[in-house]
Amino acid sequence: MIDFSFTEEQIMIQKLARDFAQKEVAPRIKELDQKAEFDRSILTKMAELGILGLSIPTKYGGSGGDYISLGLACEELEYVDTSLRVILSVHIGLNSLTLLSWGTEDQKQKYLVPQAQGKKIATFGLTEPNAGSDVVAIEAKAQKSGDYWILNGEKMWISLADVADNFLIFAWTDQEKRKKRDHSGMSCFIVERSFPGVSTATIHGKLGIRAGNTGSISLSDVKVPKENMLGEEGEGFKIAMFALDQGRYTVAWGATGLIKACLDHSVKYANERKTFGEVIGKHQLVKEMISDMVSGYECSRLLCLKAGWLKNKGLRSTKETSLAKMYACDASEKASSHAVQIYGAYGYSDEYPVERFYRNSKGAVIYEGSREIHKLMQADYALGYRIDKPTRCTLPLPEE
Ligand code: CAA
Q1: Using CB atoms within 10 A of its CB, is residue 2 exposed (0-12), middle (13-18) or buried (19+)?
Q2: Ligand 1 centroid vs 241 CA: distance in angstroms?
Q3: Is the pLDDT of residue 400 over 80?
Q4: Quick one: 151 and 212 in the same domain?
């Protein structure tokens, strides 16, 4: 039977994330965005509340909660600002859930536990200056040397790069396979900021998500112990794709929060602002934009719920997650454009938050699989060119 009601636990986590975002961040977000300032105290508060350990089992230091709860938290966080949801996308979606699924028990104890407790912050380094959508075009390499791997390379456009303590870094371990673009020559490593040769920088001048940290990671002869390889040698590409299944899920849920924020602000303004002798909400063309936001929100949410339902059942959701991410991010870009339009000239200034929503919406149709990548994936599924095979590791069932 299909059941669209939320459990008590899901509602509790939704409220926790909403109260945190509304009380702790909403009053200051305009200033943080204007100054392009990442406020580290936000991470401390999120850790205290257990938000950084959502969906990670309590036995690994997490706060538990199923994958729908994680989604609802992402929705509430992005309702206030995209930068908050991005923290969960990289720390939990791309990194911690990947460690939980692919890590050895020792790796989980050493890295996942402090991450889930929020004592250490984590991110994911796949993208490079010359490789975004085309993952096998990365150039980072790892050479074996006794009990270590020596890593060299540059990562770019990495959320929380200048903030995180731990990184999942993808690099070629087989140069011959790299030349043939054979993904089975790529591996994944757990890298600590404290390892000599790791340096990071912040990227300035972004269009949106200005209250978030985005940066680069430079690896220069970084000695990584062999026990820090995640998965087996040659499994890096698959681990990256698995991680993206979780990261994209959080991005999709976040986009629903952005649409809802656009909708709520637009409805309020449309009921106040008057033109031609009546509130603008009475004009049919304004109604059309409001209606687009309503359908965008509801459809996006249903797609997110379906992907979350599959994850809760321990089933692979690559296709459904990709569709949810593609649709919700598209709808949020459209909703924020509509919101600015409804506010008219006022929407064009930072007097109202809709211009921030508009700028923030653009990133998500580019990162974690551009709109174009997801369109290709969906077409390939439909045409039968893409069929998902069982993977060696799956997302564990949520804790009872
Ligand atoms: N889980 C596990 N395994 C998977 C998988 C998944 N989700 N998806 C694919 N695989 C496996 C396949 O089964 C296949 O295995 P075999 O070789 O054994 O058959 C292998 O991986 C190759 O799969 P595909 O043939 O499907 O790979 P592809 O070459 O067709 O993939 C692509 C192409 C879909 C475009 C992919 O490269 C892609 O998604 N690109 C976008 C990358 C992206 O989103 N980058 C953003 C990173 S975010 C970041 O770094 C910034 C930050 O802030 C952290």
Answers
A1: exposed
A2: 4
A3: no
A4: yes
The answer to whether residue 392 is domain-embedded is no
**57/158 same-domain check:** no
- Give the pLDDT score at 145: 97
Name the residue among 328, 312, 314 with its Cα closest to residue 9: 312
Mean pLDDT score, 42-67: 98
Cα dihedral sign for 193, 198, 201, 206?
negative
Q: Which atom of ligand 1 is nearest to the CA of 126?
A: 50
2 domain-assigned: no
Q: Are 251 and 89 contacting, i.e. CB atoms less than 8 angstroms apart?
A: yes
pLDDT band at 364 (very low <50, low <70, confident <90, very high): very high
Overall number of domains in the chain:
3
| pLDDT band with cut points at 50, 70 and 90 for residue 293 | very high
Q: Cα–Cα distances in Å, from 122 out to 27, 41, 98, 117, 337?
A: 26, 16, 11, 12, 32
CA distance 149 to 283: 64
Residue 78: both structure tokens together = 């992005």
pLDDT at residue 263, rounded to an integer: 98
pLDDT tens digits for range 252-262: 999 999 999 99
Dihedral Cα 50, 54, 58, 60, nearest 10 deg = -100
Residues with CB under 6 A from ligand 1: 90, 94, 123-124, 126-127, 132-133, 135, 157-159, 183, 237-238, 241-242, 244-245, 318, 367-369, 373, 377, 389, 391
Q: Is the dihedral of CA 303, 307, 310, 312 positive or negative?
A: negative
In contact, 239 and 334? CB cutoff 8 Å? no
Supply the DSSP string of 192-254, one letter for each residue: ETTSTTEEEEE----SS-TTS-EEEEEEEEEEEEGGGEESSTT-HHHHHHHHHHHHHHHHHHH
pLDDT at 237: 98
Query: Would 393 be classed as within a structural domain?
Result: no
- Report the DSSP pairing between strands 166-172 and 122-125: parallel
Q: Residue 345: which H helix or E strand, with range?
A: none
Question: Cα of 275 to ligand 1 centre, how many Å?
Answer: 50
pLDDT digits (tens, 9 = 90+) for 262-271: 999 999 999 9
pLDDT at 112: 98
Residue 129 structural domain: 123-235
**Residues 112 and 190 grouped into a single domain:** no
- Would you say the pTM of this structure is higher than 0.90? yes
